[in-house]
Amino acid sequence: MTTSERSWALYDWANSAYTIVIVTAILPLYFKSAATEAGIAASTSTAYWGYANSFSTLIVALLAPILGTIADFKGFKKRFFTFFSVLGIVFTLLLAVVPADQWMILLIVFVLTSIGFAGSNVFYDAFLVDVTTEERMNRISASGFAYGYIGSTIPFVISIAIIVLAQTGTIPLSVTVASQIAFVITALWWGIFTIPMLKNVEQKYYVERVPNPVQASFKKLFVTFKNIKVYRPLFLFLLAYFFYIDGVNTIIKMSTAYGSDLGIDSTTLLIVLFVTQVVAAPFTVLFGKLGTKYGDKQLIMVGICIYIFICCYAFFLDSALDFWILAMFVGMAQGGIQSLSRSYFGKLVPKESSNEFFGFYNIFGKFAAVAGPLLLGVTTHITGKTNYGVFTLVILFIVGAIILLRVPNTSETVSMPAVSKDLEK
């Protein structure tokens, strides 16, 4: 890999620690413990966690269209990336100083960390076209996710070790303090390994600055949206992506809360999540290689089928062994479906307008991350059973698969003109 490709992939190494420690593992358990101490039912706290995830992603989804189009102008993309990265890192640090019994404040700070994390990823994904070529896009996209799975395990293992040692009384710390140390480790890891991205990655494709970039960005957004409806392959893929990636993101965010509701102890949940990360790394690379050989769309369909099985299996989940089996299937599919979706879309868009269309890719992804947690949260709240909420996610994967079948392979698509040229009219 080139220096810029490696530096880009390292950001996945950096921020994936946030995904597993803050979104998936330690903070959800920490929050649910605080909520339980406050007398809130398990299913209700799970619903609140779902609402918080939905709200934070909704904020980013609302900001992404205008910020994404402004970022296409020279020099803006990196500024926005830096702002959201710093926002996420700083508020992740602040999680460590929020009193453990203040569950509502924890949720608010988590929302701000999530906005920073999701916002930085909007511009991180768009940088893919700046750091590599179309021929290498599968490999580099998969490498990013693989780096993330491997890199995230290091601070995760350190955090687990500190928490377990605190639980057993080996070190003179409470579990609360040990969890807060995990939040600090995550923020520092995220910050340190973001430096190569800031140093070595630059915006290669851009639109020259204009006197009023905000006004121009609204016009550019309108032109892009008008054209994306015309280009059927792109529109169909984004529609399919909207549904199936929503299911993927919801399972990632809500898995620990679900396991906790089933009575699986915290230590087992953390170990399962660690093993899932280890399994995900090689399977992400494998998906990338198979996608190159058999077609990206075909391998994305395989991933969707695995997730449909996961949702059905989760409905009958009632033991730690079942949770282990479920986690292994998640590890097999999640990195592959994410990395291939990113590279597949990168091949669908015309290179000269890739930044504009990647903005829409991220918009659809962020809006998709709202419906799933909300669907799970509402269903769980109404029924009082988390497994009913997880099972409803099958709908998202089935709809996504049906639409994806109508999307042509990248080799069948035709070259499309850059929509930015319409701005000159």
Automatic annotation (TrEMBL):
InterPro entries: Atg22-like, ATG22/LtaA_families, MFS_dom, MFS_trans_sf. Keywords: Membrane, Transmembrane, Transmembrane helix, Transport. Coiled coil: none annotated. It is found in: Cell membrane. Residues 233-425 form the Major facilitator superfamily (MFS) profile domain. PROSITE patterns: MFS (PS50850). Its main location: membrane. This is MFS transporter.
